[in-house]
Amino acid sequence: MQVFKNLVFLATMVAGGASADARFSTENAVPTGLFGLTYTQAQIDSISDSDLRRLSFYADRASRALQTLVEGASERSISEQDKVNLRFRESILRLADAGKRSGISMDQVADFYTQSVFDKFGQGFMQQVAVVAGGLDFRTLFRNVATLPDQSSHLSDSGADFLNALAEASEDLDLGVPLESPARVASVAPSAPQPLANANTAEREIVNRIRVIDGRWELTIERGDSLSIIASAIYGDALSYTAIYSANTNVLNSINVIDVGTVLVLPQR
């Protein structure tokens, strides 16, 4: 059985801005008047009932994880927020995997999820999401999935694979031959980061603005920058915004707002 489901995508507005993110604009975009949110029609074709149930289940779990992330964020310590972000990231990975099994694109999964969040929590909550770290962008979060390591493999790894590989590598060692002193490795000056393969135009522009000064990565904030998009640009993970904030508490008073002209030092990971 084929199920044709029309979804409405609501692009979250950039904090402090009056219009939706241009990456989500289409020729068929319909203005809604909802504080800068823009509705865009998206269609998921030929999806089975079982796939739709699976998507809905994981979208609900990810929505609840997002609710926890957003509500009470201002009262949490950075370490506590990192734990909440980790749970949300894992829920996004599971929903993305359900989308892949259903044969739909990550943009379609993001649109499905956005509609699910809006249906569950409403417009006011979407506005709160648009403030966190300068705006959590759902399509960016799902695009980040391609750059994140496969976390499921570490969680189930007992260490046996590593020990077996170590034993195999040891078979050819001649223990009677003394080891040579390792050659001294010349120090290499740190280089600027390179744009990730799936970076969008805004992220590429951010990476290209980063300067290497005394071994540090520095970025001068311009209009439209946010901690979440900077984290996505250099780490491929928008939810790593806390790492940038923690390294710059001397110049930042809030995770959600950064002033134009502020110079940030970006952790090299």
What does this structure look like?
- The longest helix has 25 residues, at 78-102.
- By secondary structure, the chain is of the alpha+beta class.
- The protein has helices spanning 49-70, 78-102, 106-121, 123-129, 138-144, 151-156, 160-170, 201-209, 227-235, 241-246, and strands spanning 3-11, 30-34, 37-47, 211-213, 216-220, 263-266.
- It contains 10 helices and 6 strands; from the N terminus they run βββααααααααββααβ.
- α1 packs antiparallel against α2, α1 (49-70) crosses α3 and α2 packs across α3.
- Residues 1-42, 151-163 and 169-182 have low confidence and may be disordered.
- The protein has 2 domains: 3-144, no CATH class; 201-266, Membrane-bound Lytic Murein Transglycosylase D, Chain A (Roll).
Features:
single chain, 269 residues, alpha+beta, Membrane-bound Lytic Murein Transglycosylase D, Chain A, 3-stranded antiparallel sheet, 6 strands, 44% helix
| Largest sheet features | 3 strands, antiparallel
For the CA atoms, what is the radius of gyration?
22 Å
Roughly what percent helix? 40-55%
Count of helical segments?
10
**Proportion of residues in β-strands:** 5-15%
Number of domains: 2
List low-pLDDT spans.
1-42, 151-163, 169-182
How many beta strands in the DSSP annotation? Answer: 6
Instruction: List the strand order in the largest sheet.
Output: 1-3-2
What separation lies between the terminal Cα atoms?
47 Å
Q: What series of H and E elements makes up the topology?
A: EEEHHHHHHHHEEHHE
* Dominant shape: globular
Overall pLDDT score: 77
